[in-house]
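Subject: PepSY domain-containing protein structure
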Amino acid sequence: MKKTTTIAALSIAAILGATPLLASADDDYGRGDCDDRYENRHHGKSMGSDLKQYSTDEMRIMAYGQALRRFGPGVDVSVEETSDGTYRVQLRDAEQNLIREQEFNQYGAPVRGGHRS
């Protein structure tokens, strides 16, 4: 009788100990057409894939913000649109020395001069 009680107690303890493992192994994604894993995707595109084309004024504001953050006050930023539709950004210090020159496309991505100084 004592042996049976011990086996039953160990069996119950083993089942209760494994319950959290069984519960955590449950997969909520096996529900068929209601798949939440890709909730940020829309029509085959990932979130943020709708790229915005920036105007010259928007590029100037973004370039000045980045230059101010990186080089501090006193930096002069000039943004000019080139003939091929890109934007040339020049950063100059208080003495008008060229710190950096870089070219960006209409989406704000570097085109030429992308090396870090």
